[in-house]
Amino acid sequence: xxxxxxxxxxxxxxxxxxxxxxxxxxxxxxxxxxxxxxxxxxxxxxxxxxxxxxxxxxxxxxxxxxxxxxxxxxxxxxxxxxxxxxxxxxxxxxxxxxxxxxxxxxxxxxxxxxxxxxxxxxxxxxxxxxxxxxxxxxxxxxxxxxxxxxxxxxxxxxxxxxxxxxxxxxxxxxxxxxxxxxxxxxxxxxxxxxxxxxxxxxxxxxxxxxxxxxxxxxxxxxxxxxxxxxxxxxxxxxxxxxxxxxxxxxxxxxxxxxxxxxxxxxxxxxxxxxxxxxxxxxxxxxxxxxxxxxxxxxxxxxxxxxxxxxxxxxxxxxxxxxxxxxxxxxxxxxxxxxxxxxxxxxxxxxxxxxxxxxxxxxxxxxxxxxxxxxxxxxxxxxxxxxxxxxxxxxxxxxxxxxxxxxxx
Amino acid sequence: xxxxxxxxxxxxxxxxxxxxxxxxxxxxxxxxxxxxxxxxxxxxxxxxxxxxxxxxxxxxxxxxxxxxxxxxxxxxxxxxxxxxxxxxxxxxxxxxxxxxxxxxxxxxxxxxxxxxxxxxxxxxxxxxxxxxxxxxxxxxxxxxxxxxxxxxxxxxxxxxxxxxxxxxxxxxxxxxxxxxxxxxxxxxxxxxxxxxxxxxxxxxxxxxxxxxxxxxxxxxxxxxxxxxxxxxxxxxxxxxxxxxxxxxxxxxxxxxxxxxxxxxxxxxxxxxxxxxxxxxxxxxxxxxxxxxxxxxxxxxxxxxxxxxxxxxxxxxxxxxxxxxxxxxxxxxxxxxxxxxxxxxxxxxxxxxxxxxxxxxxxxxxxxxxxxxxxxxxxxxxxxxxxxxxxxxxxxxxxxxxxxxxxxxxxxxxxxxxxxxxxxxxxxxxxxxxxxxxxxxxxxxxxxxxxxxxxxxxxxxxxxxxxxxxxxxxxxxxxxxxxxxxxxxxxxxxxxxxxxxxxxxxxxxxxxxxxxxxxxxxxxxxxxxxxxxxxxxxxxxxxxxxxxxxxxxxxxxxxxxxxxxxxxxxxxxxxxxxxxxxxxxxxxxx
Lengths: 408, 589
Known about the structure:
The complex is a heterodimer of chains A (about 400) and B (about 600).
Chain A: H1 2-14, E1 27-31, E2 35-37, H2 44-53, E3 58-62, H3 68-82, H4 91-97, E4 102-103, H5 108-115, E5 120-123, E6 136-141, H6 145-173, H7 178-187, H8 209-225, E7 235-240, E8 243-247, E9 260-264, H9 279-288, E10 293-297, H10 300-306, H11 311-316, H12 323-326, E11 331-333, E12 336-339, H13 354-360, E13 363-366, E14 370-375, H14 380-405
Parallel strand pairs in A: 4-5, 12-13
Antiparallel strand pairs in A: 1-2, 1-3, 3-6, 5-6, 7-8, 7-10, 8-9, 10-14, 11-12, 13-14
Chain B: E1 9-13, E2 18-22, H1 26-32, H2 35-43, E3 58-61, E4 76-81, E5 88-93, H3 97-103, E6 108-112, E7 119-124, E8 127-132, H4 141-148, E9 154-158, H5 160-163, E10 171-173, E11 177-179, H6 184-190, E12 193-199, H7 209-224, H8 227-230, H9 235-238, H10 243-249, H11 271-278, E13 281-283, E14 293-298, E15 301-304, H12 308-317, H13 323-336, H14 340-354, H15 360-372, H16 377-380, H17 384-390, E16 399-400, E17 403-404, H18 414-422, H19 435-438, H20 454-470, H21 483-494, H22 500-520, H23 533-536, H24 552-566, H25 576-581
Parallel strand pairs in B: 1-6, 7-12
Antiparallel strand pairs in B: 1-2, 3-4, 3-6, 4-5, 7-8, 9-10, 9-12, 10-11, 13-14, 14-15, 16-17
Helix pairs in contact in B: 2-20, 2-22, 7-21, 12-13, 12-14, 13-15, 14-17, 18-20, 20-22, 20-24, 21-22
């Protein structure tokens, strides 16, 4: 258990959500017959009663670093004022977390009160307290500490997306507040600059199954290293010898070794039952195009701009509360098509929309979800496009904000 | 007004053919919820009686979400004492039985006594009739269905196996759905009940329909995102047989009575092969969108395709490689009304003891002998454990507490090993269902070759799955959704404020009640164990996967931790204090 706790605490640091020292050090607790922590901390006094009050086996606690700290703090305070939870509209939150409840103090009863029905709770900052350490995100698991890691990572991602999406919309509507401007001005310069230099990836077409496994694992690892996907979301596949080698469902893209399913295109085996939930979309795309490699990440600004819609048009649209599944318009950002669709294979699933979009474009964005890119023989082009589109979206976002804030 | 429940429970005394109507208060409903919880409520006072005592009860309950738009919530749960194991016996069954029962105005029925002759019980709304079924006795379940032609009504029937006292007799609902495990069909037959026909015209009440709609949307969204359920190779497309290749791939397919874990011809016997050969259509329980039941075509007639366990056990476990045999064995078991897992496992045990391989013909003939209690079938109808004891080779029974193991070799998944050993109904994969995280990677993957953390995982999962059986929902949907979403549905339907953790807490008490019932019947830590083979013999490794024997010390250490976490003593027996804290009564004899 201790090893697992340390591993996922380390992953929060590696993802730049937490830090190695100071209040941002992740705290992870696990319980089998006894509670163990990854480190000593004052907060364990508050969190140990949470273990007693819930049927769980793990807790993760993080005071996120910047920019998440300020963004979450802002959203949490706003939520407390309105008495409602934070409701991001990105795909991950909508599907898995539903909403992000907020409490005003770090107390066992309040934490239990929320976690008995939700996977996570945000503890708002107490800005009046000079010793305040910033907001905290707490998440639990009943199977593994990995659940806490995934949830915290998703919360940070969702809050990032929500703030920047809402801010753009507020500017467009002319309703942005001084507080929002100030937060944007504070957060924007600290954002990691988009990496432009491509990693050296294996050259295809690949000749052996071993090469395929290595190339898929490498593409996944680099996608995480470049910050183009969070926690364990995203997926990668490669077609070789009439078989699609695809990352497994719930696998971390930076740890794909042993987590790649070979799925024969002829459907002769169902071993692909553990493959990514986007298997159908990958297979359809492979059949519709002459590409062998597919890469899917959740780069933040691609996701943010996929949700950018003219507020006047949006207000008039009869599907304005169902954009993610029913957006009736043909939309593009930086020349890349944006399609609606939910995770998986339902009637409103992205497997019905994405492959068609990728027939005519080597990249496509799924609304509020992420970016899919293709490579003919290997992952080089797919990775280059992932990076290029995200950098272009980031640039465009800031240009839009600039124009709206400083109209000519 | 009560929402979610009808507020009425039907009590039937078969000896006098009298009925009584119980109207429990809301407190009873909120404590026992429905399904398995309600069944345990009525079994507990009878726990000391033998399974075939006239006063022993058999209960069948729906749940509060049944008959509403809450997804996959229309299952029925049977509870009694198991003839096979002497433990608390229960079984969940699909079809439309529970929905019709609830529409008829009943949350469930509790049956005691024994009729002097075979009868059928016919329920239409508040009208209850006992029909002489002497002419149907001895008839297989398919023929009973054809004769009674229930139409919109739901029909549950037992077959000759149960009538003849086979210890693993089943109850077959609406032709295709089987309450297989624990031998509860035999309990009904012992009361001289041949069939139950139920129809109702009422509607199930929902407190806040809008809220329920939102809960439903959340659940559907999660199932759509689940490769196991709705994916291209998931249960919707291929049925539960979709698991077959995975078990082969993970080297944990029980082969030759669990002497090996790899069956070389497996790739020719998989679900894709069945799909090609029998062109199945989707079919499922009322109120389910997953539709995992597959009905195929063979020579112009409809055949129910086997579930995963049946596919695996009637091939790898008994050393046969004929899909036609599987189809026929499945059909015979369903027609005669007996559990396929127990039947196949008992045959596998026989094969090991006698050292004789089977032909397809021999397997089918033996199945008939079991059902009709002819010749060798009399011993085989006792189940693997009793059969092996009788043959002087108890070590060859691959069973826990007398119930035969399903098609997941525990050497390939240690949570499953612990789950099997600790299950309150014997060798059962569904009590803790660790395949979810050990194989399907949901909600996240765990190390299948480690006991680390598994004691608490198993305990929590048992509580969760208990609640699933109280809500009479389908366990499969919990590969995708969770109690978080179902608590929302429960709250919407009943109007009672609740949370996922509240439901888990109730599940804990209901499960603990089962430990009490088992303790009252003399079960202790010596029964919470696996067959010795798993600790001494390796499985069939390969493809970089090693399947060593399970380390017994690690297993015992995890079991000890489980006892602590569950609130049991070191011998696996309940504690007075813990029972009291859960609102239960237990005094150590």
